[in-house]
Amino acid sequence: MKIGIISRIDLEKALDLTKETLEHFADEEVLLSPKVAEKLGEKGTPIEKMDAEALITVGGDGTVLYTVQKAPNTPILGINMGGRGFLADVNPEEASEALNNLKKGELETLERERLKVEISGNHIAECLNEGVIRSKEPSRNLFFRILLNGEEVEKNRGDGVLISTPTGSTAYAMSAGGPIIDPRLEAFVAVPLSTHRPRALPLVFPMSSKLEVELLEYDRKADVTADGQVSKEAEKGDVISFEKSENSAKFYKWKGKFYEKMREKL
């Protein structure tokens, strides 16, 4: 089995667990991401060039999101050394058991939907959690309109808008006032950010639709960010579109069920 390992390097506990993971797979081909390899005195391989059968992340959900951007088609087992751990859902004390199950081929895989993000027809990225459109200048808000399949839904003025998948509904979207969406639903949610309309509500749409956000003021620019990993600039006349991606993210299924995790972590 060919395994790739991506770990945080700023936590000694994460590096120690990475060493233990290497021992678990001592008789397998194991590749380390460059920064981890440098810390451990080993040879590194860029994540996008690993060509691994499975990826193991040792860190938090941010480490998982970074890895998905680099290698979207490889299933991930996430060991949580961070905060909530909705994506990296293996607790450190369970790591040995999870790694043994992975090695024996006893872990099921599941898929999570992603959103394709474009600016005026130019592909930017695909996001597992959310795409965020925010004013490039914090002191100046944006004027924008939201369209669904070409039909105007609303116009709004504020800091911006966040478009989330069900997976991302327990992350930034929830903090911004959005609903939690069961990951089995094919839907996404648009959450206005600090708008002038105090009762601007989140809107939930079928993921089969195309959602667009058009910027309406000539002197205002926006940052468009996917999963906090990829960021591009947009300006008046640009249309930022969100559609269901053909490429889902793949994960190894661990013990926790969604509502059990929700009760424990939120």
Automatic annotation (TrEMBL):
Its EC number is 2.7.1.23. GO terms for biological process: NAD+ metabolic process; NADP+ biosynthetic process. It catalyses: NAD(+) + ATP = ADP + NADP(+) + H(+). NAD(+) binds at D61, G62, N129, E130, R140, R157, D159, T170, A171, Y172, A173, M174, S175, Q229. Its main location: cytoplasm. Keywords: ATP-binding, Cytoplasm, Kinase, NAD, NADP, Nucleotide-binding, Transferase. The active site is at D61 (proton acceptor). It is found in: Cytoplasm. Its cofactor is a divalent metal cation. GO terms for molecular function: ATP binding; metal ion binding; NAD+ kinase activity. Pfam families: NAD_kinase, NAD_kinase_C. GO terms for cellular component: cytoplasm. It comes from the Archaea. Involved in the regulation of the intracellular balance of NAD and NADP, and is a key enzyme in the biosynthesis of NADP. Catalyzes specifically the phosphorylation on 2'-hydroxyl of the adenosine moiety of NAD to yield NADP. HAMAP family: NAD_kinase. Belongs to the NAD kinase family. This is NAD kinase. It comes from candidate division MSBL1 archaeon SCGC-AAA382F02. The lineage of its organism: Archaea, Methanobacteriati, Methanobacteriota, candidate division MSBL1.
